């Protein structure tokens, strides 16, 4: 089997819901080639790497050249209406390619495939293959079926599929940072959220396979892994051989012990589930990055209850206080939604004041987008006018800008250990890397004999709204 050469970069917009990632590979000896674009969260990007592995084992080669592909795949996201519209727009762009190349097959994968199922075949006549997130192993069979001219669909959700035995092919990787899925699905049923319907029940992946994957990444030169799950704190695995129950804190520790040179990150934590045990483990290991993404969604207790988030504003604030007490240097980020059903001006003020309290280093902010089939769609009216949702969003974005700039400015005149991830986008004479609290740092290479994947001390002399600028501190 030919070895794929994979180069390039992961777009770091993975949490925005609409990012995409073309595959870059080279190699000429494949009979059929596939092209895959990923939208949505990091879990979808990680899934595309599993899909690439499944297809590669069956003799399909990846390409990033649309014209050269025999199979076009969109790994899709349904989190907000805009994410689905982006995919539909992309599909119309594919139409002209299909006209030029009649044998070309188009496959819709991921959450939108799961949500719409074979309804998609009526709506999007172009699509030949529809595969949900738990059915990727059947992709080679579905391709064979589609090649006979039939439409091929598999959207069965599973209670135990974790793809634990599949070694993902890293797509467009920088060779330094990689995602490792540790669980799938979600049991939380937040009322606004489509994920429990598109990804099914929560299940944890065999801890041994996670550690093996992280070890093999480390030996392959990677220096950072991000452990992925919709709710990592509810990770739970019983080792049948040792009868040991492994919690998320224990898993974090196992991965951190692979090497002090391997940075460990994780996402996403749920405020109701993150434990002191996780925070203590983070404090104990220098290589577990001091950065926590703790989505709040709203600062109003009434709205939090309607959202079924199962914590209060006070509970959330107590978690933030605890993180700052145990991990004073930690970066903290959040997700916030404006204009959820029945949100009043006072509810919005509560979200605003919570943000003033937390002063997040980073925040992903959205206005509410009603999703068909969710609890909120069935129980409540989407009654906040779009212009109100958007103007509230603008207000919290403006507030967050102040906090994020203050957060950057606090780091000026300090020195940080930076993991070099590659050249700066703007200049080959500068490096681009990140601190362990997840800030991007750009600094001149000068004449130091450094490579990507190396750690270096960088003294920060200034900043922009999103980047720290520094010099190597020797
Ligand atoms: N599991 C994570 C959690 O509990 O926060 C992330 C879930 S989702 C992939 C990422 C973010 O999208 C959510 O935290 C939420 O802020 C946002 N989101 C989810 N559904 C939404 C909707 N219907 N409208 C607007 N934003 C939404
Ligand atoms: Fe969606 Fe809530 Fe699950 Fe996150 S925890 S994926 S917001 S249902
Ligand atoms: Fe989107 Fe599915 Fe992720 S809906 S955010 S790709 S879990």
Features:
474 residues, alpha/beta, Rossmann fold, pyruvate-formate lyase- activating enzyme, OB fold (Dihydrolipoamide Acetyltransferase, E2P), six-stranded parallel sheet, five-stranded mixed barrel, 33% helix, 23% strand, disordered N terminus, binds S-adenosylmethionine, binds iron/sulfur cluster, binds FE3-S4 cluster
Question: How are the elements arranged and paired?
Answer:
Elements: E1 5-6, E2 25-26, E3 32-38, H1 42-57, E4 60-62, E5 71-76, H2 81-100, E6 105-110, H3 111-116, H4 119-123, E7 129-131, H5 139-147, E8 152-154, E9 177-181, E10 183-184, H6 195-199, E11 203-204, H7 207-219, E12 224-228, E13 236-238, E14 245-247, H8 248-256, E15 263-267, H9 276-284, E16 291-293, H10 301-306, H11 313-326, E17 331-338, H12 345-358, E18 362-367, H13 375-379, H14 386-410, E19 415-423, E20 430-434, E21 440-444, E22 455-463, E23 467-472
Parallel strand pairs: 3-4, 3-5, 5-6, 6-7, 7-8, 9-12, 12-15, 16-17, 17-18, 21-23
Antiparallel strand pairs: 1-2, 10-11, 13-14, 19-20, 19-22, 20-21, 22-23
Helix pairs in contact: 8-9, 12-14
